[in-house]
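Task: complex structure prediction.
Instruction: return structure tokens for all chains below.
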Amino acid sequence: MRTCFLGKFGVSLWKIAVLWSEYPPTMPDKFKLDLPIRPRRLRRTAAVRALVEETILRPANFIAPLFVVDGKGAPEPVGSMPGVSRFNIADLVKECRALAKLGVPAVALFPKLDASYKDERGSAALHDSTLIVRAVQAVKKALPEMVVMTDIALDPYTSHGHDGLLTKDGRDLANDETVEVLMKMAVLHAQAGVDFVAPSDMMDGRIGAIRGALDEAGFSDTAIMAYSSKFASAYYGPFRDAVGTMKIGKVAGPSDKRTYQLNPANRREAITEALLDEAEGADIVMVKPAGPYLDVIRDVREATRMPIAAYQVSGEYAQLHAAAKMGWLDLQKTRMESLLAIKRAGADMILTYFAKDVAAELGK
Ligand code: PBG
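Output:
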């Protein structure tokens, strides 16, 4: 046999060829970890994965936020929220019926008022036949079983878009004066037939005050879903487009909502707010936004035994749609994953603009 210079060391070319052919070593056949614990055993098949699934989304977990306008016009698409429209009352009722058929038990209604109805003090909020009152009456009449919730805050009614009344110098919101209006607003909505009022204003003491006002007016069965840990978030942008409150800071009042909504940097304060609302008589506490605040949902979950709602807000919805439109994300998969994450974090129910589409998908 011919040998190269390595032959001097007793290595034949043949032997080198054999060694070479075995390189790299074929791991699965030859190599075995001594590994009694293999978590992948529980991921092998779809059936096994289903068996060990920890978090399950169902249509009954969803509350669908819906926008309502006056008149008899066709649904008005909201530019920054693909697939979301403002409905007239008749179409709103139809939408609620479609949601009920899909197993979605609850809706949160938001009015978009014509600018001519808005003023500095949000007076139209207390008109007894204001749009939201008629919308609630229509939905409850057609679908008595549907859980109807309404926002208690003045932003759709004020010319400046803030959630309450401004102080005299216009640099902040007047807490107690605002609460007084909200108490009346809550009673008005209770009279219209809502199941839940949802104070979203973040004034101090409003949950206790509203509970008292409802009870005194004979509405002790009307529940309160408190927007408890509501952050001063930039993710509300598309919603302000939907309800026409983009004027915040441009006409009067502070330039943003940071004197009443929570600082996005604060976890402990978010828990304090939830516990305060619980003590004041809230039936459900909420964390909002949801996706960017999963830690807060978990914190509140661990701090209380109350049911927790999380609001996947307009900006969370818009960003998935925008990325999907660019072809960068799979809308169907990311929306499901985003909702699953919110529930996994500890939310019992989720307000989401995906409610209808995801309920339909879950029902298939
Ligand atoms: C108003 C209100 C807002 C949202 C719900 N109620 C906006 C805000 O506080 O400025 C946001 C909802 C969303 O972005 O989807 N009090």
